[in-house]
Amino acid sequence: SAAADRLFGLVQESRPNGLLTDIDGTISRIAGHPDDAVVEPTVRQALEGLSQEMTLVGAVSGRSAADAHRIVGIDSMVYSGNHGMELWRNNRLEQSPLAQRYSPHIAEVLERLVIPRRVDGIYVENKGLTASIHYRNVADQERVEAELLEEVTEQAAASGLRVTRGKMVIEIRPPVDLSKGTAVLELIKEYKLAGLLYLGDDVTDVDAFQALHDMRRDRGGHFYSIGVRSNRTPPEITEAADAMVPGVDGVLALLERSLSRG
């Protein structure tokens, strides 16, 4: 698109020294089951190349940081997991002590849920600091989504937990002010980045898009967010992104163009 080309011109000139990307639906195609997601060798190669050239290359995911590292498999990258609540780097995991306190409550809520045990195709994933309930593979998605959302919201509220939503997934999170947005700002500060590209495709990425937008407005600098289009792109993504690219293939093309800029 014209917007993407225009943005790319800016990127070529400004050469941001950081790149952060979501995983599912951004650098890996959406899989029927989270465990089946893969990052294709071409994408991995491009990320590996960029991690040699840039100050920071990382993945920011709703998955646990260890799981994010498992899927991407590049040791020189940094992995922010569980929506900014933990960080994996140099083979070490750092977790938010505040978020850790809620892990037992999350486990208890999952125990109390009835619908996942009753309906075929629901997959419940306890990620320690957060939990995801996937319903991509159920027969009657709309009905199940409504019932599940009601049950999860009720049970989570009783334990003081938050409920958020993504594509075909309902998430339970601790009531702490951590998100992909806070994760991105923290990394920019820590690595003293003057510019950053952020890629994402789902509602939770909007927090990061917004953080970069505010940063650019308040401080200047080359902080850009790129939305990844799919057949289920949330309107919030299209509204908040500086430019859109078509799917994982569009992301690969962008990464390869970034690599060849020298």
Q: Gist?
A:
This protein is of the alpha/beta class. 44% of the residues lie in helices and 22% in strands.
Q: Could you describe the 3D structure shown?
A:
This protein is of the alpha/beta class and 262 residues long. Helices cover 44% and strands 22% of the residues. The strands form 2 sheets. Strands 5-4-3-2-1-10-11-12 form an 8-stranded mixed sheet, sandwiched between helices. A 4-stranded antiparallel sheet has the order 6-7-9-8, with helices on one face. Helix 2 (41-53) runs parallel beside helix 11. The longest helix is centred in the middle third of the chain and has 18 residues, at 141-158. The model has no long low-confidence stretch (mean pLDDT 93).
Percent in helix: 40-55%
Backbone CA Rg = 18 Å
- Largest beta-sheet characterization: 8 strands, mixed
| SSE string, helices as H and strands as E | HEHEHEEEHHHEEHEEHEHEHEH
Biggest sheet: strands side by side, in what order?
Answer: 5-4-3-2-1-10-11-12
Distance between the termini: 23 Å
Low-confidence parts: none
Overall outline: globular
Number of helices: 11
Mean pLDDT: 93
Q: What is the tally of beta strands?
A: 12
Give the helix/strand class: alpha/beta
Instruction: Give the strand content.
Output: 15-25%
